[in-house]
Amino acid sequence: MLKSPEQYVESLRALKIRAYVGGEQVDSIVDHPAIAPHINTVAKTYELAHMPEHQDVMTTISHLTGERVHRYTHIFRSADDLVKKIQMLRLLGQTTGTCFQRCVGLDALNALYAITYDIDQGEGTDYHERFKRYLRKVQAQDLMLAGAMTDPKGHRAKRPSEQEDPDQFVRVVKRLSEGVVIRGAKLHNTGGINSHEVLVMPGTGLRPEEADYAIACAVPADAEGVLFIFGRQSNDSRKLEGGCDIGNPRFGVVGGEAMVVFDDVFVPNDRVFMAGETQYCGTLVNYFATWHRANYGGCKGGNADVLIGATAKMTKILGTERNAVVRDKLVEMIHMNETTYASAIGASAMGTPLPCGSYMVEPMMANTVKQNITRNVYQIGRLSHDLAGGFLATMPDQRAIENPEISEYVKKYHTANPEYDVMERIRMGRYIENMTSVTTMVEAMHGAGSPQAQRIAMLGQAAIDEKIEMAERVVNGDDDVEGLPLPGKREG
Ligand code: SF4
Ligand code: FE
Predict the structure, then answer these.
(1) CA dihedral 417, 422, 425, 426 (to 10 degrees)
(2) Minimum-distance ligand to the CA of 102?
(3) Which of 30, 95, 417, 455 sits at a 20 to 30 Å CA gap from 12?
(4) Known catalytic membership, residue 257
(5) pLDDT (tens digit, 9 = 90+) per residue, 162-179?
(6) Is-catalytic flag, 103?
């Protein structure tokens, strides 16, 4: 079944989600002005799946049931699936101009599908069949899933088992015959508040004595003991004001990240997909992170399309659009954006099968995508600021526009090319401000792993010794064919 956007919203309304915004418990997440923009964004993922022109990108056929399902609930069964995912992300980025949140749950779904297979192969357990039963339900109900991997981590120099407070990493505090009880928290949880379920995964490799921390499971967002604390964003109070200062009037800024607390939450066995198999945690983290890092070439590509559009529109409003330097700066923005998109498509097209039969992106390219995003999003934002001008930081607010005493001054002295309404300049400026401000930039830096995490992975995958051998063969002429003229052949 493919949920409609309305069904998504109503299904959230039916849940009793315990969420806090601005320190206060929210009565209805669906109606709260701080959360509604993020719900609207996810609703677009449901809406586009019903449009015939987007069916191929937004939906596919389940390998479990043969039914048409949303691509956000699908297991990657081919390199083409991986490519289509990146195309879907760019489309959604172009449509919403922000983060649409469902990718974390999708990659968590795929990581758990793959790791449960691996664990069963190695340990003779039956997690994979259990997971497939859960997956059928996710597909049948077209659920919005949040992926929860990042633990608070406490003292960074200490391992989970060495922390003064053992709850700094999510852990099992009680094992019962019917399930487990978990305690801890996960941070930076994208879309958590407006999800149906949270997929909990360990966030680091673990040692045998850390078995209690090796827990992967699915928790309903309104399960007893689960609560969400909404993060503060740089422009969040603008959403409560309305008017032109919001920036993106219908959709959120980044993914409505929240802290999710598990205060002794009971998880029944049929929702537990790893419980103590520490030796698989590193691989699980790696599966998830590698898929997720490739995503950023798609979603940020779509977001940058909107940002480039807003910047180009600003140059028209200012009357600078024909200036050769201005045009060249737009080209630079486009160049950076297409480079990361191309890497994401490349990582996907070069995908290879895992033991479970699903497809993994090419890891070097996937890590390179995310590494470039940590730079290019800043560079693209810098050029946008450059072209849009200091107005971005000094433009008056909605209240100044509404005050009859000063409104005319505001409009008169902010009008540039008179062909364009001054309010359009302000609206475009506010969108640029939103998409290049602290929250957005930090998300691009740390989402899907901080820059150093990619560099460690890249070094691990670079096969430097093989490159040394390549250099030796070329320089020393070791591959020479007998009888061919080789003027540079080394003697001896
Ligand atoms: Fe998806 Fe991008 Fe948001 Fe991550 S940052 S959830 S990949 S849209
Ligand atoms: Fe993200």
Answers:
(1) 160
(2) 1
(3) 95
(4) yes
(5) 999 999 999 999 999 999
(6) yes
The residue with tokens 């009357």 is 319
Tokens of 156: 């960074």
Kindly name the residue from 72, 113, 213, 296 that is annotated as catalytic.
296
Q: Cα(60)–Cα(41) distance, rounded to whole angstroms?
A: 21
Ligand with an atom nearest the CA of residue 92: 1
Atom of ligand 1 nearest to the CA of 98: 8
| Backbone phi, psi, residue 275, to 5° | -150, 80
User: Which ligand number lies closest to the CA of residue 298?
Assistant: 1
In the chain the domains, ranked by start, together with CATH numbers, are: 284-466 (1.20.140.10)
Q: Is the CB of 100 under 6 A from ligand 1?
A: yes
pLDDT at 489 over 70: no
Question: In angstroms, what is the span from residue 104 Cα to ligand 1's centroid?
Answer: 7
Q: Which atom of ligand 1 lies nearest, measured to the CA of 292?
A: 7
> 155-159, 180-184, 235-239, 370-374: which range is least confident on average?
235-239
The preferred substitution site among 85, 87, 104 for testing ligand 1, maximizing ligand atoms within 8 Å of CB, is 104
Measured by CA distance, the residue closest to atom 3 of ligand 1 is 99
Rounded distance, CA 29 to CA 21, Å?
A: 9
Q: Check pocket membership of 215 for ligand 1, CB cut-off 6 A.
A: no
What confidence score (pLDDT) does residue 217 get?
98
pLDDT digits (tens, 9 = 90+) for 449-486: 999 999 999 999 999 999 999 999 988 877 777 777 76
Please report the atom of ligand 1 found closest to the CA of residue 191: 6
Calpha distance 254→240 (Å, rounded)? 17
Structure tokens at 210: 């850390």
User: Any catalytic annotation for residue 296?
Assistant: yes
Which of 32, 128, 196, 292 does the annotation list as catalytic? 292
If one counts every other C-beta atom within 10 angstroms of the C-beta of residue 45, the result is: 26
Could you read off the pLDDT of 273-302 as tens digits, one per residue? 999 999 999 999 999 999 999 999 999 999
Q: Are 385 and 392 in contact (CB under 8 A)?
A: yes
